[in-house]
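Quick log. Single chain, no ligands specified.
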Amino acid sequence: MTSANDDLKALVRTIPDFPKPGIQFRDLTTLLLDAGGFRATIERLVDSVETKVDLVAAIDARGFAIGGAMAEKMGAGLLLIRKDGKLPGATIAEDYALEYGTDRLAMHVDAIAAGSNVVLVDDLIATGGTARAAARLVARAGGHLVGARFIIDLPDLGGSAALRRVGVEAISLMEFPGS
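-> predicted structure:
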């Protein structure tokens, strides 16, 4: 799917040495600022989901903008997967590894009706730790994860491959080499 999206890839700005030397930061805010590019991004992500979904599970925080637009187009609900401590009421949570330590994602314990079809969405996949934690949350809550969608994949960091190894279809609109 990635070569078909060179028009969108051209709208992504690369910022060298951010947040630290040696990193090539892929800034998709320039893509989101472009009305036509944003619209095409949402349409192409939606078109890549072949199964009827009940929920779009969006990962904190840029995933919310993408997931909200996708959910509206798909006639689905929007499930917010947040950093732990940000949701009121009863939640379930999953830890995931960071470069220096761990973090935790949470969702409402009653957010998914058993057997609901869910697609997971975020702006970018790097190592895949966040996406794998979100996938575990969906499974624990009784949802059926039909796949994961991302605007950008950094395949050298292995996140999409890690999702595929645990049985999750991972599709991205574009890839960038390196970190």
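The chain has a mean pLDDT of 95.
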